[in-house]
TrEMBL record:
Protein family membership: Belongs to the binding-protein-dependent transport system permease family.
Organism of this sequence: Saccharomonospora piscinae
Gene Ontology CC annotations of this record: plasma membrane
Native organism taxonomy: Bacteria, Bacillati, Actinomycetota, Actinomycetes, Pseudonocardiales
The keyword Cell membrane belongs to this UniProt entry's keyword annotation: yes
PROSITE patterns, A to Z: ABC_TM1 (PS50928)
UniProt keyword terms in alphabetical order: Cell inner membrane, Cell membrane, Membrane, Transmembrane, Transmembrane helix, Transport
Name this polypeptide is given: Iron ABC transporter permease
Residues making up the signal peptide according to the UniProt record: none
Length: 556
């Protein structure tokens, strides 16, 4: 703190005492928060409300809500999401222990391998499980959704577990408690907030899963998300889509409320963080947990290996035809562009979406931090509302948002419906909550006395951010950028609806290839998925190498 004060003093800050710095920062945060609120209003709230209004105007919403088929869809959506959540929690728990409490060679590699499934595009995951279970079905959907979200449990629970003081558990052991009883009575209650938070997030992702269900469920098994897509795109049934969107939105808000409560409980458990070196070599029965974690890790790698093998397996045996075909448009002109052109489109749109999401997400995170510490109750409430609202795009149907773009954005002075920025705007909506959740914990961990010292020495809010916050949050910004990039690279829901036929992204091209007959098209689709997987694995390793201690995956 003294060093920061000297730097500010040497640049002319002495003698200018900021009056009531807390109020000044709150006002500045209010000004900065205009952009995130405006972005959410124009590119999320407006399109969603417009679609709901059209649905109600067409009539039939009440009939759709009263139809038994609607509630069968809702029941299946909730059931498969609950089943996948249970599997993800059970599989993620031993991995959380491995990441938090075990000190063995290669743990850094394990961390990267655990993260890879979560950042894989949904199209890749869907095809990977089709390589294992060609018929898909309920089991395939549940397994794929659990595979996709094990990392959320492992990293969220493991993040808190690594900060728990082992002395409480050791004390219980010294008093005669068995290892199992010490875990059940001491460690597990302390971990429950993180488990609840992770479970709420996993349920949210599984309930709104689109690409996985579309590829593995087909026409036999549909969730609310895929049914909204069918009614909007194929049937133009806006009233039915609006009714289903309302049901889905209610489930999303409930999951977000559970997650918010669990997150506050997890934050209140910060007082348990006293152990810096909680990891150690396993002893006795702990090796059994390590062995279970190893089995889970092998199961996570199985679909990835199956995908790679399928990409080089033709009718006549081993072949590179799928990879060579990426330079063309597929069998019988399946694509309007080459596979490499689709890959370049993905890179461009992901770059634009990531840059936009970083700008909006960082401004939103700064606004939330400052308003939560404001002396004014109204500002604190506004910060809580903003924080919650930023999470809604993760749970609202991407198809609803995408169709809403086509309905509303033509009314703007610049018609964005034909703009190449349309897809990046939709992808940025998905990335912004992730950026906020990665950056926000780091900003909250910054010692407020540093900011106060800088303000007392005359630094304005912008200079406080540049001199104090930015150096501390830089690593999290790099991780957020990398994480957001791979999410945008594999985004399929809104992109499949908004991408122009002459400029598809690689996930959209892969989905088109899968739907076309011909062995070459199938091999080309699997080859494209392997390319996406290689890029996401590389970026996952980058995230691991630069991640900040407080920026943990799953801080939702």
């Amino acid at each position: 703190m003294a060093r920061a004060a000297r730097r500010l003093d040497s640049r002319g800050g002495r003698g200018r005492v900021a009056a009531r710095p807390g109020w000044g920062r709150t006002s500045a945060a209010g000004a900065l928060g205009v952009l995130p609120v405006a972005f959410l209003g124009v590119f999320f709230a407006w399109p969603v409300v417009a679609i709901l209004r059209l649905g109600f105007a067409d009539g039939g919403v009440a009939d759709t809500l009263a139809a038994p088929s609607t509630w069968r869809l809702a029941a299946f959506t909730v059931a498969q999401a609950l089943a996948a959540t249970v599997v993800a929690v059970l599989a993620g728990f031993p991995l959380a222990y491995l990441l938090a409490r075990v000190r063995l060679p290669g743990i850094a590699i394990v961390r990267t391998l655990v993260l890879v499934p979560f950042v894989l595009p949904t199209v890749v995951v869907g095809l990977a499980f089709r390589a294992l279970w060609p018929d898909g079905g309920v089991f395939g959907i549940v397994a794929a959704n659990a595979f996709f979200n094990v990392a959320v449990v492992a990293r969220t629970v493991g993040g808190l577990w690594s900060q728990l003081d082992r002395r409480a558990e050791d004390a219980a052991r010294s008093l005669g408690a068995s290892r199992r009883r010490a875990f059940r009575t001491v460690t597990l209650p302390a971990l429950l907030p993180a488990v609840s938070s992770a479970a709420a997030v996993v349920f949210l992702f599984c309930a709104t899963s689109f690409g996985v269900v579309l590829m593995l469920g087909g026409n036999r098994y549909r969730t609310l998300e895929t049914e909204i897509y069918l009614r909007t795109v194929n049937l133009l049934d806006l009233s039915g889509a609006a009714a289903l969107s309302l049901v889905q939105l209610a489930a999303v808000i409930a999951a977000l409320a559970v997650g918010a409560v669990a997150r506050r409980r997890r934050e209140s458990a910060a007082g348990l963080r006293t152990a810096r070196h909680s990891a150690r070599r396993p002893e006795g029965g702990e090796w059994a947990v390590v062995a279970v974690a190893g089995v889970v890790l092998c199961l996570l790698l199985t679909p990835i290996v199956a995908l790679v093998l399928r990409s080089v397996s033709g009718r006549d045996g081993f072949t590179w035809d799928g990879y060579r075909a990426l330079s063309g448009s597929g069998e019988d002109g399946a694509l309007t562009v080459t596979g490499w052109d689709a890959a370049l489109n993905s890179l461009r749109t992901a770059s634009d979406a990531t840059m936009l999401a970083l700008i909006v997400g960082v401004l939103a995170a700064v606004t939330v931090v400052v308003t939560r510490r404001s002396p004014r109750r109204g500002a604190r409430v506004a910060g809580e509302i903003t924080d919650a609202a930023l999470m809604l795009p993760l749970g609202v149907s991407a198809v609803t948002v995408g169709f809403g773009y086509l309905v509303t954005l033509g009314e703007l002075p610049w018609d964005l419906r034909t703009s190449p920025l349309l897809v990046p705007f939709a992808q940025a909506l998905v990335i912004i909550p992730l950026v906020v959740r990665l950056v926000l914990p780091v900003l909250r961990s910054v010692d407020e006395r540093l900011r106060q010292a800088a303000a007392t020495l005359g630094a304005g809010p912008a200079r406080v951010w540049r001199e104090v916050d930015l150096p501390l949050v830089a690593r999290s910004l790099v991780a957020a950028a990398a994480f957001g990039y791979v999410v945008a690279l594999g985004e399929f829901g809104a992109t499949s609806f908004l991408a122009r036929p002459d400029a598809p992204t690689l996930p959209v091209a892969v989905a088109d290839l899968v739907s076309r007959p011909g062995e070459l098209n199938q091999l080309m689709a699997y080859a494209g998925c392997v390319l996406l997987m290689v890029v996401t694995a590389f970026v996952a390793a980058l995230i691991e190498s630069v991640r900040a201690p407080h920026a943990r995956l799953g801080e939702f």
